[in-house]
Design goal:
43% helix, 7 helices, 7 strands, Rossmann fold, single chain
Length: 249
């Protein structure tokens, strides 16, 4: 098996479940040591055990990405392994379906904090760590196809995810000369806990929107993330990557 991340060190936020969990396992298969980060310690520790079964090192670091100081501590924890090579900014929330003119300020600020500001902090401190380590590292931010076009009743989510795209593009241009790559992945409708808000009636409507007529699998998203994290994508930076079954927004 290709081990192009052998002896590299990766941090994955939101690594306890869904896309994050699948990404931890895929990166481990490629040889990377993993720092699994999440607020769900029980599930996060389970992922650590699964990762270790693949023959690499792994630890769990509890981190609430809505708190800057916890993100700083998370980034510093990579010193247990060495330098920071890969940062996957995956943690986020789905938000409540609501038209913008009815959305409360509280719900707006919470969504923007968790889905956009936290990614800014993670990218900021990961970049500083990579520059300090003189690491030609890779940062992958997870956005959504909702960030590439308007999404009625999901306005705050769409705005946050659009912000993640622009954060990626700007950051990539700023640090490309240092060998640090930053890319963004925009999943379409994928089998994750976030879709639970749609209910059973909502899923058929989602599937109908997808030309391939099915929902995506977390492993399919993880495959793309891992490619962008690895040396196989060494000339790719500042790029938007869709994994959406053909949906066009």
């Amino acid at each position: 098996m290709n081990k192009n991340l052998l002896n590299k060190n990766s941090i994955v936020t939101g690594g306890a479940l869904g896309i994050g969990k699948a990404t931890c396992l895929k990166l481990a298969e490629l040889g990377s040591n993993i720092i699994v980060s999440d607020i769900n310690e029980e599930e996060g520790q389970k992922v650590v055990s699964l990762v270790k079964e693949k023959g690499v090192k792994a630890i769990f670091v509890k981190c609430d990405v809505s708190k800057e100081e916890e993100i700083i501590s998370l980034i510093e924890s990579v010193k247990d392994f060495g330098r920071l090579d890969v940062m996957i900014n995956n943690a986020g929330i789905g938000g409540k379906p609501c038209f913008l003119h009815k959305l409360s300020n509280e719900d707006w600020h919470k969504l923007i904090l968790v889905d956009l500001t936290s990614v800014f902090w993670c990218q900021k401190y990961a970049t500083k760590q990579m520059l300090s380590d003189k690491s030609s590292g890779s940062i992958v931010n997870i956005s959504s196809i909702a960030g590439l076009g308007g999404s009625p009743s999901l306005g705050s989510y769409s705005v946050a995810k659009a912000g993640v795209v622009e954060l990626t593009l700007t950051g990539a241009l700023e640090v490309a000369k240092f060998g640090i790559r930053i890319n963004v992945v925009c999943p379409g409708w994928t089998e994750t806990a976030i879709l639970d808000n749609a209910g059973k009636k909502g899923r058929p409507a989602m599937i109908e929107q997808v030309p391939m007529k099915r929902l995506g699998k977390v492993e399919e998203v993880a495959n793309l993330i891992s490619f962008l994290a690895s040396s196989e994508s060494s000339f790719i930076t500042g790029s938007i990557h869709r994994v959406d079954g053909g949906i066009r927004t």
